[in-house]
Amino acid sequence: MPALDVAGEFETIERLLRPLAHPEWARGLMDDVAVLPSRPGHDLVLTKDAMVEGVHFLPDDPMNTVARKLLRVNLSDLAAKGAEPFGYLLSCFWPERCGWPEREAFAAGLAEDQARFGVALLGGDTVRTPGPASFSLTALGWVSAGAAVSRAGAQVGDLVFVTGAIGDGFLGLRAARGELSLDEVRLAALIDRYRTPTPRLDFAQAIREFATASVDVSDGLAADLGHIAHVSGVGVTLNLNVLPLSAAAQAWFDDRVDAQLSLEDLASGGDDYEIAFTARPRHEEALRREAEKRLVRLTRIGDVTSGAGLTAIHDGRPIEMRRRGWTHG
Hints:
2 domains; CATH 3.30.1330.10
């Protein structure tokens, strides 16, 4: 249904986006470019993710949470590289249904998380589209020169860790679709995790100091660990029996009949935006201290081996997972 109060491009920029702009570098969103000063001794780290209605968020998801998720999934990429974010570029593709209230809610969500994470808008574009609502964001951050953690550094003998809980993104989508039977408090917790995941920026320094390879968990834990294995040229084992679950996910799991298949679903569902990484065994104690200091849950979930690719283990035996995660066309 077309919106009755559709805003134009320049009104959207003037009233909603300009207040989000960096006071100096974005040039008030009145130029074709942003100009960033260099930062001696640092590398510039960039990442880009897009979100499309019906693919990455539901048509009835509140627009403020859509904006917050868009920003957060990009910040999660920076956190996994050990980078400190400072700004972002934004493109908005508005369908007919998105009038002033929807655009205002979207901008309010960005404003809320800009304040939370210390970033600012640097520029971008806003257009109208006959297709679904779509958004693309490029996040920028700084890291000390040469210190950005890649997927390629895992070494045989490393341990494999993951922050936080796994599976809430998968279950949160099902909860938002009305497909789960849990109590209201747990359903609300899962939906919140799906709509507004928490980027682990508070753990970025520990990643930078101790991780040999790192990736944010977006495609699914199994798939993303497979990326590390492939790029590093090593094998990675994933012990499904120690998969860290939230209270809500544990309540769901306790009702399942097939434990193995349920753990496979949680490990391949994606949208968790935790950090999976490898580190030398001698650094485990220091990592646990850093996690405890920051109130971050940290779980050892596997090992790096001399094999190739990912090997999932359940009840002490290697298994063949039905699927490992998402791929993008």
